[in-house]
Amino acid sequence: MGLLETIRAGRKRRPRRALVYGVQGVGKSSFAASSARPVFIQTEDGLDTIACDPLPLAKSTKDVLDAIAALYGEEHDYRTVVVDTLDWLERMIWDDVCAEFGVKYLEKADGGYGKGYTYALPRWRMFLDGLDALREHRGMAVILLAHARAEKFQTPENTAHDRFAPRLHKLASALVQEWADEVFFATYSSISDPARVKTDAVPERVMRTSEGPTHVAKNRLGMPAELPLEWAAYDYYVQQAYPATSSSSKGAEPNG
Ligand SMILES: Nc1ncnc2c1ncn2[C@@H]1O[C@H](COP(=O)(O)OP(=O)(O)OP(=O)(O)O)[C@@H](O)[C@H]1O
Ligand SMILES: [Mg+2]
Predict the structure, then answer these.
(1) Pocket residue to mutate for ligand 1, from 29, 48, 85, most atoms within 8 A of Cβ
(2) Looking at ligand 1, which atom is closest to the CA of residue 230?
(3) Is the pTM of this model over 0.85?
(4) Residue 22: beta bridge partners?
(5) Residue 228: nearest ligand to its CA?
(6) Tens-binned pLDDT, residue by residue, of the chain (256 aa)
(7) Which long-range contacts (CB under 8 A, 24 or more apart) does 57-60 make?
(8) Top-level class of domain 16-245
């Protein structure tokens, strides 16, 4: 293949990788359940009320990697793999590292001083590589779910404030965020301003798609900063960015 052909081939539409994080109960799992033919690798309970196809509850990183391997090797017609949630996967990764070093806390692993967090990163890469293999060879999109936490953010102007970020150690969080095509912060439209909440009605659920002072987020699709927390909204912008193979119906292209 010539060099220019390689460039053209590189622009082809590929299944997307999204990280969706947000507060408890905001609707992360429901969002993922409405994606294109999803299958859930669940590391925590809580899918009982959601209509979806969950694999048996994963209790270790081996269970998670085995699930990825099964989706890679076995016959199925799922188009999206959902990992619900990364918070619990992280605990499992820490357990593995602690067991390897015979310590109780990750802070003490690999000689201490928090080196265990760096030591854990190749395990995260192995997990992400497995998901990439599902994308490349099975055409599956990926949705990773995580809870949210407030983290200290140091601005270039040397002031600091809190902002929401995935509830993961900062090294793992940075790795997963870099890997993902999109990072969405799922929240309520008026959560930050209780004075504006006048009724008992549940505020609208939204996803913030671009980085702001209150949260981390990103997208590569030219999305507005805030969208309804709905799969169709995400899918719409994927179709806009890649109109050639357009098919917006649920169950056709795995969103990418
Ligand atoms: N867009 C929505 N509009 C109204 N209700 C919703 C919406 N999305 C989810 N819900 C409801 O909110 C509840 C929590 O949803 P869901 O389990 O998807 O949230 P979650 O963020 O995954 O929660 P958890 O943090 O506990 O895993 C469910 O009862 C669900 O039916
Ligand atoms: Mg959930």
Answers:
(1) 29
(2) 1
(3) yes
(4) 147, 186
(5) 1
(6) 677 766 665 556 789 999 999 999 999 999 999 999 999 999 988 778 888 888 999 999 999 999 999 999 999 999 999 999 999 999 999 999 999 999 988 888 888 788 889 999 999 999 999 999 999 999 999 999 999 999 888 877 778 889 999 999 999 999 999 999 999 999 988 655 556 656 666 678 999 999 988 899 999 999 999 999 999 999 999 988 887 644 444 444 556 5
(7) 58/89, 58/92, 59/92, 60/92, 60/95, 60/96
(8) alpha beta
